[in-house]
Amino acid sequence: MSESAVEVSGLTKRFGDFAAVEGVSFAVERGEVFGLLGPNGAGKSTTIRMLCGILAPTSGEGRVGGHDVGREPEAVRERIGYMSQRFSLYLDLTTEENLEFYGGIYGVARERLSERIGWALEMAGLEEQRHRLTGELPTGWRQRLALGCALLHEPEVVFLDEPTAGVDPISRRRFWEVIYGLAEAGVACLVTTHYMDEAERCDRVALMYGGRVIALDSPEGLKRQSVAAGLLEVACEEPGRAVALLQKTAGVKRARLYGAGVHVVVSEPATGARLVREALEAAGLRPSRVEAAEASLEDVFVALIQEAEAGGAR
């Protein structure tokens, strides 16, 4: 078995002339929570499906649990848990019947299955819903049931494709408690998301755009190496007008609304604050505050996407 739980090198998937994923490389260690962050259409779900042995790569290599995803998809699927964006549950079965069905699919021994179903029901908080039709469950409860089904066979690697999309805050919190518990037990967890607060919870994050990985580091590392050195926070009258003005100001790389204020990235951090203040005052906008700011992951996300677009990425 390879040292890393997941190893990806130059992974590419083409549909005709369109490259949905192109040259992606990264590794996920055992016990690590690894996030794939990116806008819709970035290639996150396609990457996950290749690593689960569902889609065959066009080129490159992916190994999960020591097995090649292209040549050994069945061996890969035996070692993983996969929760897709769309529900894979049978809505006309009860909560418990869905768990029994997936236990059989995953080959969980009969003497072990009852214990695992009990664990899944407790984990999902669905003990009192075990005999209720799945189609009658609220969305967040169905998501938790889907997660329980994916974990019945105690996989080495778990792939969670936007697992908390559309669920309530309590369900989201419960999901992340389960994810952290899995990681503490040595399970590698790969999570796709476009929620910045969820990306902050990951040990490392790969930012995807246009089918490529354009940045990879811990959330704190990404913030340090990106726009932090030239980021200013501005409080002023008419922030919308201020953004329009600053976007046209020489020495300003980008400006955008951030809460009730404006975040501005300048080319020269040493003189940027004075430049921004003078530009706003000349336009009669009277800034009350122009000071260095700590970059958020959202700042990093926006900056890197804009840089990729300016560089000719799709």
If you had to describe this structure to a student in words, what would you say it looks like?
- This protein is of the alpha/beta class and 314 residues long.
- Helices cover 38% and strands 26% of the residues.
- It is built from 11 helices and 14 strands.
- It has helices at 44-51, 73-79, 95-105, 110-124, 139-151, 169-184, 196-200, 219-225, 239-246, 269-282, 297-310; strands at residues 6-15, 18-28, 33-37, 59-64, 67-68, 80-83, 157-161, 188-193, 204-209, 212-217, 231-235, 252-258, 261-266, 289-292.
- The protein has a 6-stranded mixed sheet, with helices on both faces.
- α3 (95-105) packs across α4 (110-124), α3 packs parallel to α5 and α4 (110-124) packs antiparallel against α5 (139-151).
Give the SSE map:
Elements lengths: L5 E10 L2 E11 L4 E5 L6 H8 L7 E6 L2 E2 L4 H7 E4 L11 H11 L4 H15 L14 H13 L5 E5 L7 H16 L3 E6 L2 H5 L3 E6 L2 E6 L1 H7 L5 E5 L3 H8 L5 E7 L2 E6 L2 H14 L6 E4 L4 H14 L4
Parallel strand pairs: 3-8, 3-9, 6-7, 7-8
Antiparallel strand pairs: 1-2, 1-4, 4-5, 9-10, 11-13, 11-14, 12-13
Helix pairs in contact: 3-4, 3-5, 4-5
